[in-house]
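Input C-alpha cells:
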C-alpha cells in the first residue's frame, strides 16, 4: 500500500508541488482516472499558508495538502458508486460516475474535492495514478526540490510513520498522508534593561506546561526567547537574570502562536 510522507522541516514553501500538479493535469486528461483540471479554481495539490505570531516575531507555516487517500474515505461513504480505492491505496473518483454528484464535494472533511462547473463533475488528486501505473512518482513528489514530499510503500516508511501525525484524525477517515515535524505553536518575547536601554542576553526563561512539565531556554544576543512546538493550553512563564529581580507571567492562554512582547527587568533598588 502506498503512502505520502510530508516532512514540514524540509518544506520551504516554494509551491513547486502545487505548480507540478497544475503542470500535469491542466489541459491533460488521464483516462480512466481524471479529466483535465481547470486553469483556475482547483488545486488538487495545494499549499496552505498560515502566519504564526505577531510582528516582529512571526513565522510562516507551509503545508502541502493533497487528497489524503483515506483508508475510510468519506467521499465514497457518501456516494459509494462514485469511485473506488485501488489495491495500492490510491482513492479514485471515476469521472463518468461523479457527473452531477456535487454532494460528494461537501462530504470530504479535508476540502480536497473540487467541483468543475463546466464538466459538472467532482475532481481531486489521483495520486498521479497514471504515472504510478508506469512505475513513476507522482509529479508533485518528483518535482519537490527539498525532498520534503515523498511517496512509496508503507513498509519503506514504517519508522517515519511511527512518529508521524495525520490531519483531522477525529474524522475517522484514516488518511494515508503522513506529516513529520509539524511546527505546532510558539511563545516568544524579549527581555531588556530599561535603565541601560539595552537587551539582556543570557537571561534564563522557564515555561511551565499544563501538567507541570517545564522547558528552559536563554535569551539570545538580541534579547529574544522562543519556545516552539507547543500545544494549546495554559502556561506559566518566569524570567531570571543575574543582578535583576525575577519576573513572572501567569495564566498565558495559548490558542495561536503568541509574541508576548518585551519584559523589562529591574535591578533591586532601582526606581
Amino acid at each position: 500500500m502506498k503512502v505520502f510522507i510530508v516532512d514540514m522541516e524540509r518544506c520551504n514553501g516554494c509551491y513547486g508541488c502545487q505548480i507540478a500538479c497544475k503542470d500535469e493535469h491542466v489541459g491533460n486528461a488521464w483516462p480512466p482516472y481524471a479529466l483535465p483540471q481547470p486553469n483556475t479554481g482547483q488545486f488538487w495539490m495545494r499549499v496552505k499558508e498560515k502566519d504564526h505570531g505577531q510582528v516582529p516575531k512571526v513565522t510562516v507555516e507551509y503545508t502541502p495538502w493533497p487528497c489524503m487517500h483515506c483508508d475510510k474515505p468519506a467521499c465514497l461513504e457518501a456516494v459509494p458508486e462514485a469511485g473506488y480505492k485501488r489495491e495500492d491505496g490510491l482513492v479514485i473518483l471515476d469521472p463518468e460516475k461523479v457527473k452531477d454528484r456535487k454532494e460528494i464535494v461537501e462530504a470530504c472533511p479535508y476540502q480536497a474535492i473540487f467541483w468543475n462547473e463546466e464538466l459538472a463533475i467532482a475532481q481531486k488528486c489521483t495520486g498521479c495514478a497514471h504515472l504510478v501505473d508506469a512505475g513513476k512518482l507522482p509529479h508533485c513528489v518528483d518535482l519537490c526540490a527539498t525532498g520534503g514530499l515523498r511517496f512509496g510503500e508503507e513498509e519503506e516508511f514504517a519508522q517515519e510513520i511511527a512518529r508521524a501525525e495525520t490531519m483531522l484524525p477525529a474524522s475517522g477517515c484514516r488518511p494515508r498522508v503522513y506529516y513529520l515535524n509539524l511546527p505546532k505553536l510558539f511563545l516568544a518575547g524579549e527581555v531588556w534593561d530599561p535603565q541601560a536601554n539595552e537587551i539582556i542576553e543570557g537571561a534564563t526563561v522557564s515555561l511551565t506546561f499544563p501538567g507541570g512539565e517545564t522547558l528552559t531556554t536563554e535569551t539570545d544576543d538580541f534579547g529574544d526567547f522562543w519556545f516552539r512546538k507547543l500545544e494549546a493550553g495554559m502556561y506559566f512563564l518566569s524570567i531570571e537574570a543575574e543582578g535583576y529581580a525575577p519576573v513572572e507571567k501567569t495564566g498565558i492562554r495559548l490558542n495561536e502562536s503568541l509574541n508576548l512582547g518585551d519584559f523589562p527587568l529591574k535591578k533591586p533598588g532601582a526606581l
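DSSP finds six helices and 17 strands in the chain. The chain has a mean pLDDT of 96.
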